[in-house]
Specification:
This protein is mostly helical. The chain is 74% helix and 0% strand.
């Protein structure tokens, strides 16, 4: 499946959203007319598309790494030494 113009716009936005004023959620609502939940659902689908890698390989790899790190932090147990240091 080819990336749509909206898919490319979402990737472009992910590349530079932090440089804009305002919150990311507000920018998503204003620019794409999507809830943040739907935006992230679409972003997940886009990242799974091999054409996204071709469009912007560095961004896609970074977003996948960040997603995987967040998942690990959420679901992997902490080492016992980390609990003692609190």
């Amino acid at each position: 499946m080819a990336l749509t113009e909206r898919d490319k716009a979402i990737l472009d936005f992910e590349r530079s959203w932090w440089s804009r004023s305002g919150t990311k959620a507000a920018e998503v609502r204003e620019r794409f007319e999507l809830s943040t939940t739907r935006y992230y659902e679409l972003l997940t689908e886009i990242l799974a598309d091999p054409e996204a890698d071709e469009y912007d390989p560095l961004l896609v790899r970074r977003l996948k790494r960040e997603r995987d790190r967040r998942r690990r932090e959420k679901y992997e147990p902490r080492p016992a030494t980390e609990w003692r240091n609190r």
